[in-house]
Amino acid sequence: MCGIVGVFDLKVNHMELRATVLKMSKKVRHRGPDWSGIFYCEKAILAHERLSIVDPQSGKQPLYSKDCNLILAVNGEIYNHQEIRKRYEKTYKFQTHSDCEVILPLYQDKGPAFIEELNGIFAFALYDRVKDCYFIARDHIGIIPLYIGWDSFGNFYVASELKALKESAIRSRSFARSLSLQQRGGYDTMV
Questions:
Q1: What is the layout of strands, in order, in the sheet containing 156-159?
Q2: CB of 125 within 8 A of CB of 46?
Q3: What's phi and psi for 56, nearest 5 deg?
Q4: Tell me: the pLDDT tens digits for 58-76?
Q5: Is 41 an active-site residue?
Q6: Of 18-22, 112-116, 175-179, the least confident
Q7: Side-chain half-sphere of 16: how many Cα atoms within 13 Å?
């Protein structure tokens, strides 16, 4: 069990919002006491609280693609990660042994359609810096919790627990199971 907090569609200064996200992330730290990590830029912020199960040495999150254009925060476990890793080992430079890192080459190769290839229990937020879009998804059965919300400025939040969203979001709800959300060009698309 890990904890994630993310903010997208930033309408306010990312440095000011970073402090808020750190407070939000502390509210889910009990889900992952082994490591705290954060990514932030002018367009997105991703925080991760990690419980080390698979790859305790190098699986710190958020995870980054080799070129640092894809940023990923995941709560859960990808059961078929070894099969996927083997498929991409010649075309993708894996930086960790984390089961969740396989999401990055899958996304690079297939875009959001890759979600059908994952077998496991998971909720994740992925930010693509080149395309300036995000992709949020949850496992097909909805075992791993994920909540979404918006603040009064229109910033879009995701979090592993509702109490993390209470810090900033004025509207929030559970993210429907077996649903993914992609944003590009200012429009959200349910996939």
A1: 35-40, 44-50, 3-8, 156-159, 147-150, 171-174
A2: yes
A3: -65, -20
A4: 558 899 999 999 999 999 9
A5: no
A6: 175-179
A7: 6
Q: Which residues contact 175 (CB under 8 A, 6 or more apart)?
A: 123, 136, 138, 146, 147, 148, 158, 181
Q: Tokens 């996939």 sit at which residue?
A: 191
Contacts of residue 119, defined as CB under 8 A and 6 or more positions apart, other chains included, come to 78, 79, 80
For 119-142, the pLDDT digits (tens) are: 999 999 999 999 999 999 999 888
Order of strands, sheet of 133-138, starting from the edge strand that comes earlier in the sequence: 63-64, 70-78, 120-128, 133-138, 180-184, 187-190
What CA–CA distance (Å, rounded) separates 122 from 21? Answer: 21
Task: Provide the greatest CA pair distance for the chain.
Answer: 46
Q: In the numeric block, which tokens belong to residue 113?
A: 């359609």
* Active-site pick, 2, 68, 100, 133: 2
